[in-house]
Amino acid sequence: MRLGRDRTWAREHLSALAAPLAELEAELPRVDRWGERIGRVLLAGGRLLAAGNGGSAAEAQHLTAELVGRFRAERLPLSALALHAETSTLTAIGNDYGQAEAFARQVRAHGRPGDVLLALSTSGRSPNVLAAADAAADTRMSTLALTGPGPNPLADACDDAICVDAPSSATVQEVHLVVVHLLCGAVDRLCAAVGAARGGEEALER
Q: Which of 1, 27, 130, 138 is buried most, with the most CB atoms less than 10 Å from its CB?
């Protein structure tokens, strides 16, 4: 059976992206600040932890893959962990301590003061992500949130947040992916700038 040629839903889906993407342009200075903060922490030997559920988990892992691997520019690998990807740990914690602790206990294990937690939730109300943000604050980590429409508890719990004003979780996640790539670009630019500065200092020393 062939699908009909009515593409109304597809056009509506694409149209729904237009407004939040346009609004994201106003957040570019914030994204640059986040990228610089994350980059400086990672270049100093710190770590980024990322947490989310479902599609947000996939985006958390997308971000960490780009940082440990590379986004565009060649550079040293950077330390980043997507907490849901530790499946044996995740299920053990969920079984022994409850699902709400699945990320928080990992934050306490892996996070150090000055590290960064990026928390993703389309609702901004996921209990395990909220618990991770609380654990990160207790650990004296920086906490950043990508959420759906604000205000919401996760945005309130974190040091800073980008809240995507879109009614559909799918649209929110698609905009979050754009933010992930913008963050990776900002980190790459910082790494290049730091590398160039260090290269210049070494040349002067010689």
A: 130
pTM: 0.92
Q: Which of 174, 178, 179 is nearest to 161 (CA)?
A: 179
Whether 143 and 159 have beta carbons less than 8 Å apart is answered as: yes
Per-residue CA distances from 166 to 2, 18, 36, 171, 181 (Å): 31, 10, 27, 6, 19
N- to C-terminal Cα separation, the chain: 72
Please state, in angstroms and rounded to a whole number, the distance separating the CA atoms of residues 4 and 10.
Answer: 12
Instruction: Please enumerate in sequence order all residues whose Cβ is within 8 A of that of 23, keeping only pairs 6 or more positions apart, or say none.
Output: 164, 165
Give the pair of three-digit tokens for residue 76. Answer: 């040293």
Residues 6+ apart with CB under 8 A from 192: 73, 75
Q: What is the pLDDT of residues 117-133, one digit of tens each?
A: 999 999 999 999 999 99
DSSP 8-state secondary structure symbol assigned to residue 152: -
Banded pLDDT at 203 (limits 50, 70, 90)? very low
